[in-house]
Design brief:
By secondary structure, the chain is mainly β. The chain has three domains: 63-237, Immunoglobulin-like, CATH 2.60.40.420; 239-397, Sandwich (Immunoglobulin-like); 413-586, Cupredoxins -  blue copper proteins (Immunoglobulin-like). 11% of the residues lie in helices and 32% in strands. The strands form seven sheets. It has a seven-stranded mixed β-sheet with strand order 14-13-12-16-21-18-19, with no helix packed on it. A six-stranded mixed β-sheet has the order 25-24-26-31-28-29, with no helix packed on it. Helix 1 (3-22) runs antiparallel to helix 2. It is globular and about 70 Å long. It starts with a helix and ends with a strand. The model is unreliable at 1-48 (pLDDT under 50). It binds 2-acetamido-2-deoxy-beta-D-glucopyranose (6 copies) and copper (II) ion (CU). One 2-acetamido-2-deoxy-beta-D-glucopyranose binds next to loops.
Length: 590
């Protein structure tokens, strides 16, 4: 190692040690100690560690139209999308990495997979096909409740995140299947899913959801974007379109020197990588014109939060978050993204004072109180925009798009009926003793996924959920089918007393919840005031969210039966937590 590398090694080692020290570590390998090997392997490998930034152009994933036009009207079609093992170059100077990817064929599969563009109210049928090999490319932990097929193979099942669809098409963790449907999970019923696309227009994504494998299968590459368009709403907004409407799918990864993706064999509470990829490339660059661009920023990391800014201070005009537009655009200079969170923004590069603009990240990890701070040389940067020289008579530069004055009328909390039920949802973590057969993990309300359902909302109603975080981390709450919006975030007083009481009694009444829910109120950020699919739940607070089990755009019940088997789930979207097992069943009633 050269002196500069050695210096950086020391910094990195220090950072990793701090991460380990920052967490309670009741057992030796509950932490990040093994990650030192990976850090070292990266340091020893000049090609990986000395990766030059901004040498790969930002790719755009292929767009697949999820409808046909027949006599001028959109109509349903069926797509076939497969899952393939291939290799992918994450950087010009890295060896090819074995990955799992979605694609319409082996040749066209990409990391992330193709973006599906569906049309509002036009159902789309997708046949999901598993072409994966007999064994996973990444290790999984048998101490975590995991889908295990009789005949080998990689269990998969696809969940359309944010989708409003009946339970049989939700991609239940128990509805998995292996190659050619050879083995199938207990809730498996069909090969082809029907997505009704009845909800408001916005940004969704699809990803794997097989029991106990979500964190490794997404890490391996089974994730992609999905859009529901509704021209009646979107055309009048006059947003940037076509080549100026881009997805940025951000994901952090850690690699071995041979290019393979690194993850601990044993389940760890959070996966962090120091290499930031956007659309499958490490620290890419994008050449842009001096004009407005629409950027749909999706955080597809396992556990990393991002706090992004542009290096020259250019603002983001936020027009939507997750799968809904806002009431009106909100202008901010930084965005905090949790895992699985989406911000839909417009950036006006014509106002740039510089020709190169870096997208920076400053979120500590684990978020928000972890002692690890992103390294400006590594995870402190995301990508770079490079402004193209102006050419004469270049039509492409003419910009008729705008930041609309108004968004949609249904984004506000009061656009839906008042709640009919109030629930308390408590997030815990437990530390298994060294000799336990189960690993350390997390859970909700003292219960596990396989325990009987306790959340049974009535389809067509809204509810208030008070979500209490008894852990040290921020957890992004994700509810299948329903859509949610934070109402209030209030800090808890005497947190230690309340936490130890809850750990003992697991009962908010006996633990005098009301007497602790009296701290200061933290405002809900303006850019998150719309119907979301993940709401960040900060530590030491009770976050009250309104959950709508209806179509918020029309205030009508779902035009399908949402009460069938196998039901839905709600969970934390830190994938490592979801797998083990911050996840509970959700069953709608008529
Ligand atoms: C890369 O190295 C790791 C660690 O030694 C190993 O587990 C993995 O199988 C290797 N990958 C390939 C493609 O050889
Ligand atoms: C995000 O970054 C901005 C700008 O650097 C800073 O003001 C803000 O406090 C950060 N937010 C969080 C939650 O870290
Ligand atoms: C991205 O999403 C993952 C989960 O999917 C989450 O753990 C992570 O914190 C998010 N990161 C950002 C930058 O939003
Ligand atoms: C496991 O460890 C606990 C304490 O850590 C101890 O009380 C228990 O006896 C151990 N069990 C076995 C089977 O060794
Ligand atoms: C926690 O409380 C729930 C609901 O009151 C109960 O069903 C569950 O068994 C309790 N769990 C533990 C570990 O005490
Ligand atoms: C109830 C509660 O506040 N639990 C934890 C939330 O997170 C903080 C860390 O920021 C812990 O100190 C609390 O115990
Ligand atoms: Cu979590």
């Amino acid at each position: 190692m050269g002196p500069r590398i050695q210096q950086l090694a020391a910094v990195l080692l220090a950072a990793a040690v701090v991460v380990a020290a920052a967490r309670d570590e009741p057992r030796k390998n509950y932490g990040f100690d093994h990650s030192l090997d990976a850090v070292m392997s990266i340091l020893n490998c000049k090609t990986t560690f000395d990766l030059q930034k901004y040498v790969d152009a930002l790719p755009q994933m292929a767009k697949i139209q999820g409808y046909a036009i027949w006599h001028g009207r959109p109509r349903s079609i069926q797509l076939t999308i497969g899952m393939y093992q291939k290799t992918w170059k994450f950087h010009r100077d890295m060896p090819p990495t074995p990955v799992f990817m979605y694609g319409q064929s082996r040749e066209t599969a990409t990391f992330p997979g193709p973006t599906i563009v569906a049309r509002h109210n036009v159902p789309l049928y997708v046949k999901w096909k598993n072409h994966l090999p007999d064994t996973h490319i990444l290790p999984w932990d048998p101490k975590v409740d995991t889908a295990i097929p009789k005949h080998g193979g990689v269990p998969t099942v696809v969940h359309l995140h944010s989708g409003a669809h009946p339970p049989e098409y939700d991609g239940s963790a128990f509805a998995w299947f292996t190659r050619d449907f050879r083995d199938r999970g207990p809730a498996w019923t069909r090969t082809t899913y029907r997505y009704p696309n009845v909800q408001a227009p916005g940004n969704l994504w699809y990803h794997d959801h097989a029991l106990g494998l979500t964190r490794v299968s997404l890490l391996a590459g089974l994730l992609a974007a999905y859009v529901i368009e509704k021209p009646e709403i979107e055309t009048p907004m006059n947003l940037p379109r076509g080549a100026h409407d881009l997805f940025l799918v951000i994901a952090d990864r850690k690699f071995y020197t041979n290019g393979s993706i690194y993850i601990e064999k044993e389940w760890q509470p959070e996966y962090f990588g120091e290499i930031i990829t956007v659309n499958g490339k490490a620290w890419p660059f994008l050449a842009v014109h001096r004009r407005r661009y629409r950027l749909r920023i999706l955080n597809a990391s396992n556990a990393r939060y991002f706090n992004i800014t542009l290096s020259n201070g250019l603002p983001f005009h936020v027009i939507g978050s997750d799968s809904s537009y806002l009431s009106k655009p909100v202008t901010v200079t930084n965005l905090v993204l949790s895992p699985a969170e989406i911000f839909d923004v417009i950036v006006d590069f014509s106002l740039s004072s510089t020709t190169g603009i870096e997208m920076l990240n400053s979120a500590r990890y684990p978020f928000p109180n972890g002692d690890a701070v992103p390294d400006p040389k590594l995870d402190g940067t995301v990508m770079k925009f490079v402004i193209k020289r102006k050419r004469k008579l270049d039509d492409d530069i003419l910009d008729n798009s705008e930041v609309p004055e108004h968004g949609v009328s249904y984004a506000s909390l009061t656009s839906v009926p008042p709640p009919v039920v109030m629930r308390k949802i408590t997030m815990y973590e437990y530390f298994a003793p060294n000799n336990a057969t189960k690993t350390t993990g997390l859970y909700i309300n003292g219960l596990q996924l396989r325990d009987p359902v306790t959340e049974t909302p009535k389809s067509g109603t809204t509810e208030l959920w008070q979500v209490i975080n008894l852990t040290g981390d921020n957890h992004p709450l994700h509810i299948h089918l329903g859509t949610l919006q934070a109402v209030k975030m209030q800090e808890l007083s005497n947190v230690q007393t309340f936490t130890s009481c809850m750990v003992k009694l697991n009962d908010t009444v006996k633990c005098n919840f009301d007497q602790h829910a009296n701290g200061i109120t933290v405002p809900v950020p303006e850019e998150e005031k719309t119907w979301k699919n993940v709401v960040k739940i900060p530590p030491g607070t009770v976050t009250t969210v309104k959950v709508a089990f209806l179509l918020v755009e029309s205030n009508r019940p779902y035009p399908f039966d949402a009460t069938t088997e196998p039901g839905f789930v709600y969970h934390c979207h830190i994938l490592d937590h979801e797998d083990n097992a911050m996840i509970r069943p959700l069953k709608l009633l008529r």
